[in-house]
Input
Amino acid sequence: MRCRFGLFSVYMIQKENLLLRTGILGCGPIAQFAHFESCQKARNASLFAICDAAPDLLAHMNTRWQPEKAYNDYDRMLADPELECVIIATSDAFHLTAARKAVEAGKHVLVEKPAGTSLSDCYALQELATRKGVVVQVGHMKRFDPGIRHAHRFLREKGGQLLSYSGWYMDSTHRYTVTDNVQPLPVLSSRALKPGFDEKADKTRYYLLAHGSHLLDTACFLAGEIGSLDTRLVHRFGALCWSIHVDFKNGAVGHLNLTVPYRGDWNEGFMVSAQHGSVQGKTYNPWYYRGSDVSCFLDRTATYEQVLGADAHFYRLQLEGLADTILYGVPQTGTDLAGGILNIKAMLAVQQSIRENKRVYLDTIQQGEL
Output
């Protein structure tokens, strides 16, 4: 039995006796906005270590969050026998290499999405994780939105066969005004380790990886595995719109719309038509930590059901779910590495469909680079 209550016990955060000793690689904005707090607030995990190559940033976050240990070298953190799990909160270009190192060291992994940009490298990581007996989870935190999880349960337990799914993700022109108000001001460093290219220079690629990955993963979570898709991309007046027609393997059909930037407020949601009912959902800007408003209609009783979803700290909930899997063997409820690979295949299919102007079947995609 081991227990560390730490700094936040003063504020009546209830911690369990058995805590997953977690390290965070990368002290940049996503760690500051989400992962540090998640480790401190999680009922079954502790912020054991942090690691960053920028000494000024590392020192600041060490003072602010007070982990047990702080490292400026990733290999040294991985060599710590007490460390059990690593959250990889780096630039996309470093995800796969950092995840592979952690798995080789026998550490469990929560890696920000996407798990990698090379499909063959992700398959190799999957094989290595199986051989090492460690859990790898991809950070599609929307699966821990209580409204979306309720919709998932309703469709599986009461919905019957699915007929159709519509999903949309429209990133507002006013998104940054909102997020600048609700997020803490990030601490940056000129000495932060960066990839050798600007990840945001190619907006078509960047928006697909950053936002399209969520749109596709939520569709798979609610409607099932995608069999094929046909995509059109329109670029007008500074906006990009992906119109994706989907055939799911269970026979349902669907349409997905990714628009960035959208002239209006954040606009994200889904509609599902099923054999015994239907579901409608409105999802909010994730930095509000507000659960989706979801209405589930059951035809035989002619009634709607909703869930309040008051606890909607998606990042903390995904860490708690992973910790339950690692510590107690609870079935994994987040996006496992197999699901992360399917997400990458779907994005590759979107790119191929646009490039070749045809429907693409995901089973035909065995390699590729995003």
About this structure: The CA atoms of residues 166 and 282 lie 12 Å apart.
